[in-house]
């Protein structure tokens, strides 16, 4: 149903990242992984603004069978950094989930230096559960609190 609702809107609003993301996730939930990947892999379809909840959807898909979406999002956000500020805590979280510990730690240090407001999510956001006991995460939390 969602695909049928959103698909006609894409030609009218081709640069609407949220619309493309909803369409991609609709394909995914419908079981059409090929169309979901194609929609997600469209650079214009990737989100220009990313919240912890947007990343959470990508993390969910990463752990539930589609290993391509989260690295694609990370690549997109790292390229986007030259044009706009991306929360270092978001980049740290993605890197932790992908197993890129050294890069995640660098982004956490950057988050602390920049006083990234996303640091508050480390305390309570479930996506951080796996990493909250990491020594660097504990150190950053002690500095922040």
Features:
145 residues, 9 helices, mainly alpha
Number of helices: 9
Low-confidence stretches: none
The level of helicity is 55-70%
- Roughly what is the average pLDDT, rounded to an integer? 82
Shape: elongated
The largest sheet, given as strand count, sense and whether it forms a barrel, is: none
Roughly how many Å is the radius of gyration?
16 Å
According to DSSP, the number of beta strands is 0
What is the first-to-last residue Cα distance? Answer: 46 Å
* Relative strand content: under 5%
Structural class: mainly alpha
Along the chain, the helix and strand elements come as HHHHHHHHH
Structure description:
With 145 residues, the protein is mostly helical. The chain has a domain at 66-145. The chain contains 9 helices and no strands. The chain has helices spanning 2-6, 17-30, 33-41, 52-63, 69-80, 88-98, 101-114, 120-124, 135-144. The protein is elongated and about 50 Å long. The termini are far apart. The relative contact order is 0.09. The mean pLDDT is 82.
